[in-house]
Amino acid sequence: MKYRRILSVWFPRLGAERLLRQAPHLVEVPFAVVRESGQVQTLSSLSRAASRAGLYRDQPLRDAHAMCADLLTRPQQAHHEAAFLDALHRWAGRFSPRVAPEPPDALLLDLTGCAHLFGGEEALMARVAQDCADMGLSVRMGAADTPGAAWALARHADTAPESHRNGDAIDQEARATRSRAGKRRHWERGGAAAPAVVTTPGRTGRIAAMGGTEAAISPLPIAALRVDAETVAQLSRVGLRRIGDLLDQPRAGLARRFGRPLLEQLDRAMGFVTEPLSPRNAPRRFATRLSFPDPIGLEEDMAAALDRMIPRLCIALKQQGYGARTLRLEAHRTDGIMQWVNVSLAAPSREADRIAPLMRMKLGDFEAGFGIDMLRLEAIRHEPLRETGPAGPAFSARRNGADMAMPDLIGRLGARIGLDAITRRHPGDSHIPEKGSVTLAAAWSEPAKDWPEPPRPRPVLLWRPEPVMAPDHPRLAETFRWRRREYRVTGKRGPERLSPEWWLDDPDWRSGQRDYWQVEVASGERLWLFYAHGWLMSSGWFCQGAFA
After folding, report:
1. Rg of the chain over CA atoms, in angstroms?
2. pLDDT by residue for the chain (548 residues), tens digit each?
3. Which residues are paired to 527 by β-bridges?
4. Which residues of 399-433 are buried (b: 16+ CB within 10 A; e: fewer)?
5. What phi-psi label fits residue 30: left (phi over 0), alpha (psi between -120 and 50 degrees) or beta?
């Protein structure tokens, strides 16, 4: 029988150690990341020093400060932690082509057919642990035949359930509060013991033998099955504290008393039910940065730095066959403030001489403050870009020449006024005059080609229909009044009948069918008038446009 091999990589201190990587001088200080949980602030991630001080995850912040007066905290930034997990996702691609993220702090790697390339699973896990140590990250790993078993080994291999029937034991009072004392009353009155776990230090990784999932996870606490805390508490009250205890029980009784989800999670962990692994490709990132020995503050210095950074970014884009659409330049100041600007291109490009002028136009938007000690340039939007087209190298030369003149112009204008302000017209798929064209963003559309010829000439100017004072019948009168002026008809051409789009309820076309006329008046103007035959609105004459 062929077994899958899954590796679960868990970063138990991801949020705190992400920030400690930026401030390594705080490693020995109790440090924690705080998140908002409704009206309460709780600890979401802790450093090793904070754990040694007796703090724990999900602890209220005020209780933590009471226990550790010198605790240093920072607010949680979930989007930055997600981006950091994406970076770890890319790093894990060197060990397996099938990597699935497990937000917010874990990865799942399919090692089937991969471990022998690194000398076996133990050698691979040692390599992972060493890389994490070099990055300043704590890691716990578990390898097994199923994702559920690997998850359990990574998080609970060094935890064991323990029965605490004596509510007066001194080791329970280390972090006792009045609320905890109230929760203990059920066993003080003779009930079952409250579930508890004792964590013992161990190795960073545990490996279950191939086909030995049952033996590996049987000693683990039931919480390793990824079931809710209420179910774990109910099982503990009846004396079931380990996964092995469940395997010896009749399934029908467990399902009837504790629900089907418990058995489903047990079957997934044991491999009786296949649990799919959903890997996804790590997001491509194209970025470069430049640090300065001394802070800079002049535009000339920033422009010189860009002249070194942009070619490096373009080389990375070319190697992967991509072109940049939107670039972000970040300026990290000495006072901890980060400023950034975005520059969008009308067409994807990886040529430094096209990107550099646009980036230099934005350098005046930065405030240097006490100085800038690092610049970072990233292509936050990119698209595949072919070297050659259907016509071979000649196509590429033509694209890099005159065909790029208009995108370059749009890019320069967009850097000043924004690409959204630059539009172009395209033919519309409708016989209604005012819907004969649509407005599109110039940066995200190609120039219009092959405009269809209208059946009759159309006016240069169009506006919403305006009432005309004339006799209410389809025959055009010799005189009419419009915009408080009297007009005398000297020539006319028509009618052209247009019907509304019956599948749409357009308020402007509730007057029914229209008969359009090109009307010349004595003052020399050529107007576009129509007679509405009436439907949901009254009939009458209207003016909608003017010819050149």
Report:
1. 35
2. 467 899 999 999 999 999 999 888 888 999 999 998 888 899 999 999 999 999 999 999 999 999 999 999 999 988 889 989 989 998 999 999 999 999 889 999 999 988 999 999 999 999 999 999 999 999 999 999 999 999 999 999 877 565 544 343 334 444 444 444 444 433 333 333 333 333 333 467 889 998 888 999 999 999 999 988 898 898 988 888 999 889 888 889 888 888 898 999 999 999 888 888 888 777 788 999 999 999 998 999 999 999 999 999 999 999 989 999 999 999 999 988 889 999 988 888 899 988 998 899 889 889 988 899 999 999 999 988 865 444 444 334 344 444 677 887 887 787 777 777 888 888 888 888 888 888 888 777 778 777 878 788 889 898 989 999 999 999 989 999 999 999 999 999 989 999 888 888 888 888 889 999 999 999 999 999 999 988 888 899 999 999 98
3. 519, 546
4. beeeebeebbebbebbbeeebeebebebeeeeebb
5. beta
Q: Is 486 helix (H, G, I), strand (E, B) or coil?
A: strand
What six digits make up the tokens of 423? 């539009």
In whole angstroms, give the CA distance from residue 240 to residue 404. 71
Helix, strand, coil percentages (3-state) for the chain, rounded to 5, are 35, 30, 35
CA distance 300 to 295: 13
Q: Assign 3-class secondary structure to 258-314.
A: HCHHHHHHHHHHHCCCCCCCCCCCCCCCCEEEEEEEEEECCHHHHHHHHHHHHHHHH
Contact 33, 19 (CB under 8 A): yes
- 279 and 99 Cβ atoms separated by less than 8 Å: yes
Q: At 195, is the secondary structure helix, strand, or coil?
A: coil
d(CA 403, CA 5): 52
Sign of CA dihedral 296, 299, 304, 310: positive
Phi-psi region of 136 (alpha: psi -120 to 50; beta: other; left: phi over 0): left
For β-strands 106-110 and 6-10, DSSP reports them as antiparallel
Instruction: Bin 50: left if φ > 0, else alpha if -120 < ψ < 50, else beta.
Output: alpha
End-to-end CA distance of the chain: 82
- In 508-544, which positions are buried (b, 16+ CB within 10 angstroms) versus exposed (e)? ebebebbbbbbbbbeeeebbbbbbbeeeeeeebbbbb
Q: Cis peptide before 104, with omega less than 30 degrees from 0?
A: yes
Distance in angstroms (rounded) separating the CA atoms of residues 344 and 342: 7
- Rounded to whole angstroms, the Cα distance separating 548 from 545 reads 10
CA atoms within 13 A on the CB side of 207: 12
Q: How far is Cα 532 from Cα 538, in angstroms, rounded to an integer?
A: 8
Which position has the token pair 């086909």? 211
Tokens of 157: 């291999």
